[in-house]
Amino acid sequence: MERDVLEDLAAASRILVDQGVFDAAGHVSIRHPRNTDRFFMPRSLAPALVTADDIMEFTLDCEACDARGRTPFIERFLHGGIYRQRPDVMAIAHGHSAAVIPFGLVATPMRATYHNAAFLAAGVPVFDIRHKFGATDIVISNAEKGAALAEALGDKAVLLLRAHGFVAVAPTLQSAVFRAIFTEVSARVQLQAAALGGPMAALDEEEGRKADAINLATVGRSWDLWKSRVSRPARLHHDKDLE
User: Fold this and answer.
1) What is the C-alpha to C-alpha distance for residues 211 and 202, in angstroms, rounded to an integer?
2) Which of 39, 148, 202, 239 is the most interior residue, by most CB within 10 Å?
3) Is 57 one of the annotated active-site residues of the chain?
4) Catalytic residue among 57, 63, 75, 207
5) Domains with residue ranges and CATH for the chain
6) 24-77 pLDDT, tens per residue?
7) Do the Cβ atoms of 233 and 45 come closer than 8 Å?
């Protein structure tokens, strides 16, 4: 079963590239299905290139269990911090979608523009790393920064990182991928709707709660389609470190 988990995690990485959420950077992880104090995450590699053999296992302190010469992502501390504070979270995706980044720079909140983005209706907080750490390189590069980010996320499904990107969390890998994709799509829809002017009839919190329950129950249909599109990873692997 564990090999299947690794294969799915590698597919998730490639799906998020195929769907325009990841580019040369971005990473997705899953909590160990039998040991909640561990998680799986790819080594530092462009997401489109990830295979099951590139998946590393980490403790919640973000120490590699068996590195075997592989270089981990610097931002594994983002994942470890959330898994430590949110026992309900089983998977995490972090990307830098251009459509999402503006909402972390301005006071306009991100809204749930339609049913597939229902999880946004509960609210989307913004983590501004300056508030606790001053001027930094923006990267979540240690446990203290990971813990601060997890605290800002609170009980929400999505967090924006000022001038950086977003984090989507979920109770399954498939739903984390779904939420990452539709965070990006909903951001584009909101920007288009704002250009039309007038009040925005986005989903309210109760509508979001009800619609999200349906989406979580039917996410397998989307996952099967997306996975079928990325059955073969790109062939060229490079070992240069990425964020």
Assistant:
1) 13
2) 39
3) no
4) 75
5) 2-228 (3.40.225.10)
6) 999 999 999 999 999 999 999 999 999 999 999 999 999 999 999 999 999 999
7) no
